[in-house]
Design goal:
With about 375 residues, this protein is α+β, with helices and mostly antiparallel strands. Helices cover about 35% and strands about 25% of the residues. A hairpin with a 2-residue loop joins β11 and β12. α1 packs parallel to α5 and α2 crosses α11. The radius of gyration is 21 Å and the shape is globular.
Length: about 375
């Protein structure tokens, strides 16, 4: 007789968990308190971003995630674009870090240091003024997360019979039973994959966990005219001090010190700037990082302006008209761990705290976790 599992949360972690269980023959029920996933899983760039992960187990996990994304997107006809990425250098110290990264990683990754001419050939959106060169990586992929997350749920339902209960907030767990008010369901294994459910179902555990929340501000520019495409996702130098993947470069500390002086205000608000383009030609730009358990519900216009000002140092677009602005909030570990996987009680596993790596790591993490248990 097949095992049964309940997954709480239909964001990317919940979907990744449901998939890893379903392909192993579990009968899976997934519960989402909203009519659709509306949290951090749909409020991001849609970037599957292996370049951000340090070479080793996390990079391998990111590449596993990418292969699962590719498999699902291809099979379910979900829009995706394997565009790669460019980090752009306008100062010699930025170029030096990129050169070190490329040299260290050339045997592990699809990456290379490009001349200004090569970078401009990759993307018509690169600002050519004082461009010194760029770091190319071919492994990054874009999805339209606000659409893809719902499409993955539909795919899991159709292919594997995963049963989704929308608008159903789980109010209590007493393994093997979960409750939503007076309604209840049973399963052999229960997975809590939603940050808000972790906080409300296990409040003491949440308080005793070194976890915080990050608010990030993002924007979207209108579809570019005449189907103009930027090609790869683009990043400025600030992204190199944000992502652990670059820590292997010996010159990174010196670059960080310059940024701490030149970009003190940007770093105060956790700003590093990237842009991706969706299938409709719209440009998603951001972002900032503010940490704390409770956040101001209102966005700060000066943060959005700082993002745009920095973006204009390395990118040129046909149309800069703002279409949308928003913020997302995700959970992040404060002890250096990149995820939280813990047993809340026998038979109940919490999966949370992936920080800004949910799109990049969730499929790989959950595949590895469920595989290790079966």
């Amino acid at each position: 007789m097949s095992k049964s599992a309940i997954v709480i949360g239909a964001g990317i972690i919940g979907l990744a968990t449901a998939r890893a269980l379903a392909i192993r023959g579990y009968k899976v029920c997934a519960f989402e308190r909203n009519q659709a996933a509306v949290g951090a899983s749909v409020r991001n760039f849609g970037m599957v971003w292996p370049i951000g992960q340090a070479t080793g187990p996390l990079f391998e996990r990111a590449m596993l995630s990418r292969s699962i994304w590719k498999e699902i997107c291809t099979e379910a006809n979900i829009w995706h674009n394997e565009v790669g990425s460019l980090h752009l250098a306008y100062q010699e110290d930025e170029l030096k870090v990129m050169a070190e990264y490329a040299e260290i990683n050339k045997s592990h990754r699809d990456c290379a240091l490009l001349t200004p001419e090569q970078a401009l050939a990759k993307s018509p959106a690169v600002n050519p003024n004082q461009l010194k060169g760029a770091l190319w990586s071919g492994e990054e992929m874009i999805v339209e997360s606000r659409v893809a997350v719902g499409q993955i749920a539909q795919y899991l339902e159709e292919k594997y019979g995963v049963q989704f209960f929308w608008n159903t907030a789980i109010s209590r767990i007493n393994h093997p039973t979960v409750y939503s008010g007076s309604r209840k369901w049973k399963a052999d294994e229960i997975f809590v994959c939603s940050g808000s459910e972790f906080e409300t179902l296990y409040p003491e555990l949440f308080l005793n966990t070194p976890i915080t929340k990050c608010k990030l501000q993002m924007m979207r520019l209108v579809a570019q005219p005449d189907e103009w495409r930027i090609g790869p996702s683009l990043c400025g130098g600030l992204s190199m001090i944000h992502y652990p993947g670059f820590q292997a470069a010996p010159s990174l500390d010196a670059l960080r010190k310059r940024y701490e002086t030149q970009y003190a205000e940007q770093l105060k608000w956790g700003i590093h700037v990237m842009v991706s383009q969706n299938g409709s030609g719209e440009l998603t730009i951001g972002d900032s990082h503010e940490y704390g358990l409770v956040h101001d519900p209102f966005d700060k216009q000066f943060i959005n302006q700082m993002i745009i000002d920095y973006l204009q140092t390395f990118a040129t677009f046909k149309n800069w008209q703002l279409m949308q602005s928003w913020h997302g909030i995700y959970s992040k570990m404060m002890n250096g761990q990149l995820e939280l996987v813990m047993d809340a009680e026998p038979g109940v596993t919490i999966i949370n705290g992936l920080g800004g790596n949910g799109m990049t790591l969730s499929f790989g993490l959950c595949e590895q976790l469920i595989a290790s248990r079966n």
